[in-house]
Amino acid sequence: MRSLLVIAVAVSLLSGCQTDTDALTTSATPPGLSAAASSAIAGDMVSRFAEHVGQGTGTIALKADASVFGQALAAALKGWGYAVVTDQKTDDKKTVIHLAYMIDDFEEQTLARLSTEKVELTRAYSTTAAGASPASPLSVMQRDQGRGQ
Question: Of 48, 70, 96, 134, whose CB is crowded by the most CB atoms within 10 A?
């Protein structure tokens, strides 16, 4: 029951961040997240991302990030067959998926969110120095691309 409450609060807080422009948020990671927990969260979130977007369906554009989670996310994306670029220009003929992420601590859990222009995935994790495990179901928000046209 507590997990459901945490997810409901997280989704309501995160949905308040949506704007009329399809701008993505800036990527952020709390400083205390271990490399093992970062890798576990990134691996799980990217596998779920691939389920919703398609495995290796485009080039992922990330902001350059030297954080432990940013590096784990880039490695997980590459492992699932995505090309990852940071500040480079991309071929106009290729599909480019702009991806932002947010990792935050909330009530002794870690909330993770991956955002693109079309879909947003959110999940809570229980983390330790040795890794992380899902503490909630995956929340999926599809964005309507026809809005305002």
Answer: 70
